[in-house]
Amino acid sequence: MCSFTQHTLLVYKLQSWVTPAQTQLIQLIQLTQLTQLQTQLTQLQTQLTQLQTQLTQLQTQLTQLQTGLTQLQTQLTQLQSPSSKPSSPSSKP
Questions:
Q1: Contact between 58 and 52 (Cβ < 8 Å)
Q2: Phi, psi of 43 (to 5 degrees)
Q3: d(Cα 66, Cα 62) in Å, to the nearest integer?
Q4: What is the pLDDT of residue 89?
Q5: Of all residues in the chain, what percent are helix, strand and coil, respectively (each to 5)?
Q6: What phi and psi, each to the nearest 5 degrees, are found at residue 90?
Q7: Alpha carbon of 28 to those of 34, 35, 41, 53, 92: distances in Å?
Q8: What is the pLDDT of residue 86?
Q9: Pair 12, 20: CB distance under 8 Å
Q10: By the 8 A CB rule, do 49 and 43 touch?
Q11: What is the pLDDT along the chain (93 residues), one digit of tens a residue?
Q12: What angle do CA 15, 10, 18 make, to 5 degrees?
C-alpha cells in the first residue's frame, strides 16, 4: 500500500503531467477554432466578391435601362413636337 506521502507525491506528479496536457489541449482547441473562423472568413469574402459582381451586373443593366428610357423619351418628344405632325391638306374651293 502507498503511504500518504507516496500518494501525495504521485498526485503531484500526475498534476505535473495533466496541467501541460490541459494547456496543450486548450491551445489545440483555440487553434481549431481559429482555423474554423479563417475558413468562415474566406467563405464570407467569396460571397462578398460574388455579391459585388452581381451588383456590377445590376448597375450595368440599370444603365442600359436608363439609356433605353432616355431614347424612348426622346422619341416621344419628337412625336409630340409640332414639326413632326403632318401638315393638314389645304382646302381649295
A1: no
A2: -65, -40
A3: 6
A4: 59
A5: 85, 0, 15
A6: -70, 135
A7: 10, 10, 20, 38, 104
A8: 58
A9: no
A10: no
A11: 678 898 899 988 888 889 999 999 999 999 999 999 999 999 999 999 999 999 999 999 999 999 999 999 999 999 998 875 555 556 555
A12: 20
In whole angstroms, what is the distance from residue 85 CA to residue 71 CA? Answer: 19
The amino acid at residue 86 is P
pTM comes to: 0.60
Question: Which backbone phi and psi does 55 adopt, to 5 degrees?
Answer: -65, -45
Contact yes or no for 2/10 (Cβ under 8 A): yes
| Distances in whole angstroms, Cα of residue 36 to Cα of each of 32, 43, 93 | 6, 11, 95
Which cell goes with 76?
416621344
Q: What is the DSSP letter of 85?
A: S
